[in-house]
């Protein structure tokens, strides 16, 4: 084989390896990408049904129910306009309580209940995740943009 052919084969092998590595990285990134939705967006069916996402807002006062036989907890997340029922099995953060900010990550069940895999509570009186604070403010004003409007603004 001529040196020119060897060099071409080496370049071709390098490009193929780079292509496979890029595809694997993009696939891993896509599978770990989690979007945030407000209860208003979930209620208007903008949230995905077959994929994990985050929902955030305030834990509605009086909505916390604990299973007496296990670690399952049910509560309602609200953005003051709409609500989403949430079910979570596990230990809740110490700062989790009614009337405070929360972000839950999981999937929406066929019955409309959000099944959380992870629950995050705000860490002090002045903090709320920016996405949740923005969603609460927009819901209060009745200006919740659709997912298509949000995606168009990002591009």
Can you describe this structure?
By secondary structure, the protein is of the alpha+beta class. The protein folds into 2 domains: 1-33; 36-143, Nucleic acid-binding proteins (OB fold (Dihydrolipoamide Acetyltransferase, E2P), Beta Barrel), CATH 2.40.50. 35% of the residues lie in helices and 26% in strands. The protein has a 5-stranded mixed barrel. Strand 4 (72-78) and strand 5 (83-89) form a beta hairpin. It is elongated and about 80 Å long. It starts with a helix and ends with a helix. The mean pLDDT is 83.
Question: What topology emerges from the helices and strands here?
Answer:
Layout: H1 3-32, E1 36-37, H2 39-43, E2 53-59, E3 65-66, E4 72-78, E5 83-89, E6 101-108, E7 114-121, H3 130-141, H4 147-154
Parallel strand pairs: 1-2, 5-7
Antiparallel strand pairs: 2-4, 2-6, 3-4, 4-5, 6-7
Radius of gyration: 22 Å
Order of helices and strands: HEHEEEEEEHH
Number of DSSP-assigned strands: 7
Q: CATH class of the largest domain, anyone?
A: Mainly Beta
Main beta sheet strand tally, sense and closure: 5 strands, mixed, barrel
**What is the CATH superfamily label of the largest domain?**
Nucleic acid-binding proteins
What general form does the structure show? elongated
Integer count of domains: 2
- Give the uncertain stretches in residue-range form: none
Specify the CATH architecture of the largest domain. Answer: Beta Barrel
Strands ordered across the widest β-sheet: 2-4-5-7-6
Query: How much helicity do the residues have?
Result: 25-40%
SSE class: alpha+beta
Report, as a whole number of angstroms, the end-to-end distance: 49 Å
């Amino acid at each position: 084989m001529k040196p020119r052919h060897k060099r071409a084969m080496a370049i071709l092998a390098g490009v193929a390896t780079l292509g496979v590595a890029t595809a694997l990285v993009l696939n891993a990134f896509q599978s770990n990408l989690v979007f945030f939705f407000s209860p208003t967006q979930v209620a208007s069916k903008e949230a995905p049904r077959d994929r994990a996402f985050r929902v955030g807002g305030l834990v509605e006062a009086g909505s916390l129910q604990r299973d007496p036989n296990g670690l399952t907890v049910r509560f309602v997340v609200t953005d003051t306009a709409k609500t989403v029922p949430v079910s979570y099995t596990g230990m809740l953060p110490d700062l989790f309580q009614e009337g405070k900010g929360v972000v839950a990550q999981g999937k929406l069940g066929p019955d409309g209940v959000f099944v959380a895999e992870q629950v995050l509570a705000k860490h002090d009186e002045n903090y709320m995740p920016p996405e949740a604070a923005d969603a609460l403010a927009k819901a209060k004003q009745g200006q919740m943009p659709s997912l298509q409007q949000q995606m168009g603004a990002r591009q």
